[in-house]
TrEMBL record:
<dbReference type="InterPro" id="IPR018490">
    <property type="entry name" value="cNMP-bd_dom_sf"/>
</dbReference>
<keyword id="KW-0547">Nucleotide-binding</keyword>
<dbReference type="GO" id="GO:0034236">
    <property type="term" value="F:protein kinase A catalytic subunit binding"/>
</dbReference>
<dbReference type="InterPro" id="IPR050503">
    <property type="entry name" value="cAMP-dep_PK_reg_su-like"/>
</dbReference>
<keyword id="KW-0677">Repeat</keyword>
<keyword id="KW-0597">Phosphoprotein</keyword>
<keyword id="KW-0472">Membrane</keyword>
<dbReference type="GO" id="GO:0005829">
    <property type="term" value="C:cytosol"/>
</dbReference>
<dbReference type="GO" id="GO:0005886">
    <property type="term" value="C:plasma membrane"/>
</dbReference>
<dbReference type="InterPro" id="IPR014710">
    <property type="entry name" value="RmlC-like_jellyroll"/>
</dbReference>
<keyword id="KW-0963">Cytoplasm</keyword>
<dbReference type="GO" id="GO:0005952">
    <property type="term" value="C:cAMP-dependent protein kinase complex"/>
</dbReference>
<dbReference type="GO" id="GO:0004862">
    <property type="term" value="F:cAMP-dependent protein kinase inhibitor activity"/>
</dbReference>
<protein>
    <recommendedName>
        <fullName>cAMP-dependent protein kinase type II-alpha regulatory subunit</fullName>
    </recommendedName>
</protein>
<dbReference type="GO" id="GO:0030552">
    <property type="term" value="F:cAMP binding"/>
</dbReference>
<keyword id="KW-0114">cAMP</keyword>
<feature type="domain" description="Cyclic nucleotide-binding">
    <location>
        <begin position="112"/>
        <end position="176"/>
    </location>
</feature>
Length: 176
């Protein structure tokens, strides 16, 4: 049997080995997280490029073309003075529960909308209405006023710049 000093030395050696393993595990976890960040950044870059890229005339060129025939839910602004909104009756288009869930999920995932109050999001949902678009039609073109919000229920929407496909918008995502 070892002496107390031998046991203390052995224990200290094991503690140091465990600390080295913990350090290695931490480094591996950070490497995995760094890789995930790079992957997500790669997915975001085309979107960022689409929103900030400019052509020689100084305007941003982003168009959306339907890859397949789509059904979308859209809402248009009323164009009223905010001080007069207490007298406004908003249109409430009836939607299936499935459409309501899809719209609500899309709005809550959207960076511009998700910070609104729940009542505001419900009001936006209520005002949205169905719209069927033909395959290949242009939904939004550079220079258009940003006055309509779309949430595709079916089909795909391609975002292009100068004829180059940048991104595909799938059902349940907000654009416009």
């Amino acid at each position: 049997m070892g002496t107390l000093r031998d046991l203390q030395f052995s224990l200290q050696t094991k503690i140091e080995e465990l600390q080295q393993r913990d350090t290695l595990i931490d480094e591996l976890e950070l490497d995995a997280k760094d890789e995930l960040i790079r992957q997500l950044q790669g997915e975001l870059d085309p979107l960022h490029a689409a929103s900030v890229s400019h052509n020689p005339s100084g305007t941003t060129e982003v168009t959306g073309e339907l890859a397949t025939q789509s059904r979308a839910i859209s809402a248009e602004p009323t164009g009223l003075d905010p001080n007069q909104l207490s007298h406004v009756t908003l249109n409430n288009d009836s939607k299936s529960e499935e459409s309501q869930r899809l719209i609500q999920k899309a709005l809550l995932e959207n960076d511009f909308v998700k910070h609104l109050e729940a009542s505001q999001i419900l009001t936006i949902m209520d005002c949205m209405f169905p719209n069927t678009l033909a395959q290949g039609c242009c939904v939004i073109q550079e220079g258009d006023d940003g006055s309509t919000v779309y949430v595709p229920e079916e089909g795909l929407v391609e975002v292009t710049k100068g004829g180059q496909k940048l991104y595909t918008i799938e059902p349940g995502k907000v654009f416009g």
